[in-house]
Design goal:
The chain is an alpha/beta fold and 369 residues long. Among the domains are: 13-200, Lambda Exonuclease, Chain A (Alpha-Beta Complex), CATH 3.90.320; 211-280. It has 13 helices and 6 strands. Strands 1, 2, 3, 4, 5 and 6 form a 6-stranded mixed sheet that branches. Strand 3 (109-121) and strand 4 form a beta hairpin. Helix 8 (224-233) packs antiparallel against helix 9. The longest helix is centred in the C-terminal third of the chain and has 31 residues, at 250-280. The radius of gyration is 26 Å and the shape is globular. Bound molecules: iron/sulfur cluster.
Length: 369
């Protein structure tokens, strides 16, 4: 097995789509040639990852810095729990943001995974995956991405007897579980990973639609299996549209809520495909033409705007009454000028805001019980 060093997964499978590739073997080939939407360097999570890689939170917003500090605190706790109290926190030279590869010769294909951070002490290693948002993530024992990362790390390092994996997601929990792989577990996981990657690289790999694998698949608008799947979930006339909503049975109500999200995504994707088609060809949708949506502006220099407004007689108090400041920006000011951080910063922001906050009207939604 050769360690290769490309930093991008390129046209090969990767650990981050392990679960989706297992559910739909044809997904990898279906997406070939369809460009990924590039993530912006200024994305919330990207900035936190970069700061952790540098070991310096400079440039983060107050909310990002709070997550940065929580990640380090949780990571230290995990290291002590996994390696024992003698490590006193983080190990000296953790691996940071490194892509590990496996490279098979016959048939020829590669597979990779990006490790956020990994610590090693003797024959043990701990891999942590950092999630800076609150979205749902499979628990680490059942998380195929982390299982792949454990295999890939093992294949590129020698003499490891045990690898622990954990997800650090401060907005969800400060006490994540560590899932431990022994040598036997790693060999079994490696065999299964190979079988899955081999299946994904077969030219006629079957496509099997479902919520996990289709969610971020770039092939959705050209995939007939996906269309058939969504069509089977959409409310069909006989059972839904022919019956007024108020007369739906409990089963129809539940079926509608179960599938609303998937149907909504399909509608959005289909609408985007119509707009994209019309941009290239004016006759793409007969009877329809492109229209420009109004652009929304944000005032970026309130001082200059006030200076000009005051020349027209607008007093400061009236101007301020119509101006707003977000919670995040207020925290930025408190962090810069009052030199506050973490909980002290949150408490100070609450105190400064007091009762002078206008909350949006309460709204309700539904979530699965
Ligand atoms: S859209 Fe769904 S079914 Fe089609 S290739 Fe992608 S994951 Fe598979």
């Amino acid at each position: 097995m050769k360690d290769i060093t490309e930093t991008s997964r390129g046209q090969w499978t990767s650990a981050s789509s392990a679960q989706a590739d297992r559910n739909c073997p044809g997904r990898h080939n279906a997406q070939k040639g369809i460009p990924e939407t590039p993530s912006s360097d200024s994305d919330f999570g990207t900035l936190i990852h970069k700061a952790l890689e540098k070991g310096d939170p400079a440039g983060l917003t107050a909310d990002q810095e709070s997550i940065y500090l929580s990640v380090l605190e949780i990571e230290k706790k995990l290291c002590v729990k996994f390696f024992g109290p003698e490590v006193e926190g983080l190990t000296p030279n953790p691996v940071k943001e490194k892509r590990f590869w496996s490279n098979w010769a016959d048939p020829a294909f590669k597979h990779s995974g990006q490790v956020d951070r990994a610590h090693r002490k003797g024959t043990k290693a701990l891999i942590v995956d950092i999630k800076s948002l609150a979205g749902e993530v499979a628990e680490s024992p059942s998380n195929l991405q982390l299982r792949d990362l454990a295999c890939l790390f093992d294949m590129n390092n020698t003499a490891l007897l045990e690898i622990g994996v954990a997800i650090i997601q401060p907005l969800v929990t400060h006490s994540p579980e560590i899932c431990v792989y022994t040598r036997g577990d790693l060999m079994k996981a490696r065999t299964e990973m190979y079988a899955r990657v081999e299946a994904s690289n077969k030219p006629n790999a079957p496509r099997i639609a479902g919520p996990v694998q289709c969610k971020f698949c770039r092939s959705k608008s050209a995939c007939k299996e996906y269309s058939a799947y969504v069509g089977s979930l959409l409310p069909v006339p006989k059972s839904f549209v022919d019956v007024p909503v108020a007369s739906w049975t409990p089963e129809q109500r539940q079926s509608f809520c179960d599938n609303f999200d998937i149907a909504q995504k399909w509608l959005n994707a289909a609408w985007e495909a119509m707009v994209a088609g019309a941009e290239k060809d004016g006759g793409f949708v007969p009877g329809y033409q492109l229209k420009d949506n109004p652009q929304r502006g944000t005032i970026i220099n309130l001082q200059k705007v006030f200076d000009r407004a005051s020349e027209l007689g607008i007093p400061l108090a009236d101007f301020l009454e119509k101006s707003t400041i977000g919670n995040g920006n207020l925290k930025e000011l408190l962090r810069s000028f009052a030199k506050l951080k973490g909980k002290a910063l949150d408490m100070a922001a609450d105190k400064v805001i007091g009762d002078d906050e206008k909350l949006s009207a309460p709204s309700r939604s539904l979530k699965k019980a």
